[in-house]
């Protein structure tokens, strides 16, 4: 029944303006809402989007709740680092029972390569590339 609707994750933000700048200017997503609206919506590929709302009492979980399916992960990680993004390894990182092997900021799980970053609000975001 819900398979005909797209998914729109909603993430908490401690500081709405700081989050807006990070998602728009650092990650390069399209701001879909007004310049000061809350919640704020950001567009990505194929009509997908992320919404952030200022919720100072919410603490994000220590694992990714949003994943971007990417290509060219190593180059993308380097380009984001130039923009000030910090990547981190996640404790207990495994994929389908395979322990990841770190190669710089990218974890190689064999069938998938992943990188993990925290936004300015503490939300963990995954970049995943499926290897063919």
How far apart the termini lie comes to: 31 Å
As a percent range, the share of strand residues is 25-35%
The overall pLDDT average reads 92
Count the E strands: 12
Q: Structural class per helix/strand content?
A: alpha+beta
Q: What are the low-pLDDT stretches, counting only 5+ consecutive residues below 50?
A: none
| Oligomeric form | single chain
* Largest sheet data: 6 strands, mixed
Q: How would you spell out the order of helices and strands?
A: EHEEEEHEEEEEEE
Fraction in helix: 10-25%
Structure report:
The protein is an alpha+beta fold and 132 residues long. Helix content is 16%, strand content 35%. The protein has helices at residues 16-26, 73-82, and strands spanning 10-13, 30-31, 40-43, 49-54, 66-69, 87-88, 94-95, 98-99, 101-103, 106-108, 112-118, 124-130. Strands 5, 6, 9, 10, 11 and 12 form a six-stranded mixed β-sheet that branches. Strands 1-4-3-2 form a four-stranded mixed β-sheet, with helices on one face. Strand 7 (94-95) and strand 8 form a beta hairpin. The longest helix has 11 residues, at 16-26. It starts with 9 loop residues before the first strand and ends with a strand. The mean pLDDT is 92.
């Amino acid at each position: 029944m819900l398979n005909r609707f797209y998914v729109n994750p909603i993430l908490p933000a401690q500081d709405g303006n700081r989050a807006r700048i990070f998602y728009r200017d650092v990650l390069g997503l399209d701001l879909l809402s007004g310049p000061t609206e809350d919640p704020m919506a950001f567009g990505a590929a194929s009509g997908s989007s992320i919404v952030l709302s200022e919720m100072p009492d919410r603490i994000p979980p220590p694992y990714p709740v949003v994943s971007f399916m990417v290509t060219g992960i190593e180059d993308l990680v380097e380009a984001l680092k130039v923009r000030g993004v910090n990547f981190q390894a996640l404790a207990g990182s495994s994929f389908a029972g395979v322990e990841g092997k770190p190669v710089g900021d990218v974890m190689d799980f064999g069938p998938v390569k992943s990188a993990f970053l925290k936004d300015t609000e503490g939300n963990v975001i995954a970049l995943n590339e499926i290897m063919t």
